[in-house]
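**Sequence, structure tokens**
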Amino acid sequence: MPLRRWTRTARLAYAMRNPLGGFGRVPEGPAQTLRDPWPGDAIVGEKLVRNQTLFQGELRNLQHRQWDNPAWPDAYRRWLQSFVWLRDLRELGAESARIKARSLVATWIAMPAADRPISDPSITGARLAAWLSYYEFFAAAADDGFRKSLMAALMMEARSIMALMPEEVQGWHALTALKGLLAVAVAIPDQPEFLSRYLRLIDNAISEQFLPDGGPVTRCPEDQFQAVRELAEMLSILQLARLPLPTTLMEAANRAAPALRAMRHGDGGLMLFNGSAEQNPLLVEHVLNRASRSRVLAASLPETGFLRLASGRALLLVDADAPAAPGHDKTAHAGMLSFEFSSGRQRLIVNCGASTQRGWAQALRQAAAHSVLEFADISPMVVDATGAVIKRPKITRTHVTQDGAHWLQMTHDGYQPQGGGLYSRQLYLGKDGQTLRGEETLHGGTRADFCVRFHLHPEVMVEQVENGFLLYTHEESWLFQSDAHASVEESVYLGGPERVATLQIVLFPTLPPEPEDPPAPEEHTTPSPENGEDTEADLSTASAVSDEAPLFQETEQPHNSALPSVPDAPATQPEEISHPPETATQLEETDSLAPEQEASSADASQPPDEEDEYAPIMRDPPPADSVPSLLAGVAHLHYTPQRTTVTMAESLFAEQNRTPAAEAAAARQARKAEAARASGAEPVSAPSALTQQPALQPPLCPPIRWALSLVSE
């Protein structure tokens, strides 16, 4: 490998010898032209005819013979030099567009070989594929000299790819480079070295791009989209040329397409993790249909580390893994444990997205740009000057599904070295998709200056009400509640082609009260009951004690930490689904309540005639650690430092505390699964074996609990 780097310049110079100078035979035209399967943008094509470029919403003047500029963003430079904008001119279709395309290509191939920017094989590969895909559009009717020069340029630049690969590019960009090499191999079959080199490199490029579950090694959904797109184009080229399809290529497409389908929201766009943007939903669907005829959706992505929890119309997409492996982590975001939530085709809670603009790209990598807990001055991962992650947190996750409901517990230790503690996030998605609840905790930390952010999609409108925040979409209304201090702040959304202002809900922890020194006991004489009279001091003391008594007190309730069983219902009755028992901390009223408070509490405990318009709809029981106050409105919990709160992990995920009834239910479920397998029927999913959770240090402040409930459709 070092020898190839030393000889890079010599190999590149040898590859760029012009065959028109006697170094080879140049064909009159391509033996096989290609068809670009992707649509163009006529508006961009019209701007090009007017010597302007429109890229990512920014308009620039197109300078004659200028193909590179240090001031240009890397994404714009790649777009301009790749000639993919030929599809935009073709979409415009006018004669002026044809002349403009031919003029720009002629300007490029007229440059001396030593002056052409060909150091990036992926840009070169995209350019060669574009030239051959639109050859009929701009070159078929051109003069012989232009066509000869174009064919010579195809041969020279294809050889430059052979000289630079595989060291120069990685990931899906390597697939782009090899696509260009394959395109030239099909167009010039008299040069067999192009095809043989492609077949030698493609297997390794695919294995380095995809994980065993079909996801991208960079953990970026947009990288997955681009990789599947390149696979689809290569399959199309091979089928058009009637060449055998490499087994590795077909298997990769069949694994990667279902993984890409699992990374989409209900609107068809991509989820926003690790530098991804939504992309055009129609284009994503078009790419998927081109890559694979199957419409299978990956049920899970264990190696990629994304969780897809679907229930009813609701979809919860969670980043439950550490940043990508070294060498593939330069676009990794500090969004570990963050999530996005959508209902139907409407996104509600999102991450901020990504950008290629300078300054924004780095800012959007921070935890504050994600729907997750964050500190203002510390980051859960450390990045060096090149953008690579040099210190990554450890992630744990436990996911349990029963009767359509999902329980998810995740932790990461990214804040522990700075005193933030072990971050734990627990999520519950109801079986009908109309309830999403969560708990945010920092175990063993010494700092409480954190917040939890929930970025909202720009199409979501927010209204503050007495018991929370109403989130309005085009079709539904959702109520967001929390037992913490909540506020609505400005945010920004870069998931689409342009930067859009939006809002975010920010939760701040409720700090425990400062301990007070107990007052010195005072000796006084208690009047005799026979006296029948109370002194004025006694009355004032009793009044003070009554005023200092808490309105609510936390009392421990017995709980069953095992997963509940599903009892066998009689055949004549509808099946009743049992859920995990409510073992959360109960807030009970004390005997010191005033008569008026007791009366109002009694009235509130009775079922109302009409359901409160803003109250969350209780269609399924809460998880084991949910708080009853979340069901009636926003309430601040009283914190008791001496008491250890039973967490959802302890109540749901503790294998060793299963009761005999739960063990018997698990045995019945296992027998059902075995009987189903024996009979060839669809197996019944048995309860998964759950690992014992390590003991966690008590948090400095109480957990932040929140709930998102559907109010109306």
About this structure: Residues 523-667, 680-693 have pLDDT under 50 and may be disordered.
